[in-house]
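Ops channel
N.P.: pipeline sanity check, posting one input/output pair.
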């Protein structure tokens, strides 16, 4: 596999999303990524199963372009395999709690003793230092502690997002940090720790709301889909579905008011700027709702789009797969995997480089698919590999 990161070897001990997707992004731009799993398969391999072997949709998404070995690192022979692997590696990705890293000897001090310039990329739920540093958590913990869930829905009950934006955001931050660390190592020869945290990601994404609260005590409460700092900003029913429209900034509001035939609103002091329009959002949304109700979803988004007003249809997952723009852009690539009834439409890295693009070149690995090959590369002969398998190390 070629690419900008060709020659960089990554050991991926990550689980679920934050670690594995970080490593996937590195792999998509050329790094050699070796996923290290439990002998009977790590738990994140089997979330939302879609294949005959139980492999899940999440696993298929975040593990393309990787090799896979199985290993029990808690046994002495497993530790020796790890030492040999680490000696040939540039980056270790492990979104595991600090106590688990220490138990597996993946903490930074242990890694440095083997490879002084190694980079350890890790992510925890809460970050540190702090009283919750050793606690574990998933995406939803970051969502609820950042203010985002409080502001979602209508408040009783609050709603978390159905997509794991905190996990994926943490993976993006970790991939960015890893690249920065590789650049620094190229200058100074030094490795370092790259630390992400789910809570830190969530707070960074909701930071503007927190700044507003700290500075002016806005004390906002949830209002469903109705925007609070501009209008119209809501999801509206059409004759055959739903459409989102978001108007922020006066130039957009001018175009929207003219489209609605409400040009006199441009001189109405209630709608003089975004905040005032947000304060009177119910009035503006009512007008938009009447306009949308008289049109199909396609008619609404086409008319709004031609007027250069941000809008989009609310699509089901099946409709998203079938949408002509999504299909034409090549954002997703069909990837086959043993035992799947249909190829998996896998989203490429959501950034394009004109000269050195990333690419999906290989399907996710089956469990332990590359164990023999990787061990042979670090000096194990066939008899030694057979012995490790017999002793249940691999």
């Amino acid at each position: 596999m070629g690419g900008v990161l060709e020659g960089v070897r990554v050991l991926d001990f990550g689980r679920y999303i934050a670690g594995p997707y970080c490593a996937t992004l590195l792999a998509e731009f050329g790094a050699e990524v070796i996923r290290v799993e439990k002998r009977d398969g790590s738990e994140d391999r089997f979330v939302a199963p879609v294949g005959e072997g139980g492999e899940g949709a999440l696993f298929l998404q975040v593990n393309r372009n990787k090799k896979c070995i199985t290993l029990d690192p808690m046994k002495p022979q497993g530790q020796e395999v790890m030492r040999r692997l680490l000696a040939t590696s540039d980056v270790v990705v492990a979104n595991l709690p600090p106590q688990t890293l220490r138990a597996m000897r993946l903490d930074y001090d242990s890694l440095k003793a083997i490879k002084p310039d190694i980079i350890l990329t890790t992510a925890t739920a809460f970050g540190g230092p702090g009283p919750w540093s050793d606690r574990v958590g998933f995406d939803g913990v970051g969502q609820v502690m950042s203010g985002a869930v409080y502001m979602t829905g209508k408040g009783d009950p609050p709603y978390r997002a159905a997509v794991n934006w905190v996990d994926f955001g943490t993976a993006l931050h970790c991939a960015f940090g890893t690249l920065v660390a590789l650049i620094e190592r190229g200058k100074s020869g030094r490795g370092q720790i790259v630390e992400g945290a789910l809570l830190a990601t969530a707070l960074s994404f909701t930071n503007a709301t927190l700044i507003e609260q700290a500075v002016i005590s806005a004390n906002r409460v949830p209002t469903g889909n109705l925007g609070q700092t501009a209008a119209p900003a809501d999801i509206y029913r059409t004759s055959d579905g739903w459409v989102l429209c978001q108007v922020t900034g006066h130039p957009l509001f001018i175009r929207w008011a003219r489209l609605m035939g409400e040009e006199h609103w441009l001189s109405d002091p209630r709608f003089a700027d975004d905040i005032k329009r947000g304060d009177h959002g119910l009035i503006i949304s009512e007008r938009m709702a009447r306009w949308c109700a008289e049109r199909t979803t396609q008619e609404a988004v086409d008319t709004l789009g031609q007027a250069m007003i941000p809008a989009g249809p609310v699509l089901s997952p099946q409709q998203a797969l079938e949408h002509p723009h999504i299909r034409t852009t090549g954002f997703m690539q069909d990837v086959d995997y043993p035992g799947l009834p249909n190829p998996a439409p896998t989203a490429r890295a959501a950034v394009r480089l004109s000269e050195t693009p990333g690419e999906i070149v290989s399907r996710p690995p089956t469990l332990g698919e590359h164990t023999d090959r990787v061990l042979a590369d670090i000096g194990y002969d066939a008899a030694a590999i057979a012995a490790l398998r017999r002793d249940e190390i691999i």
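N.P.: looks fine end to end. The mean pLDDT is 97.
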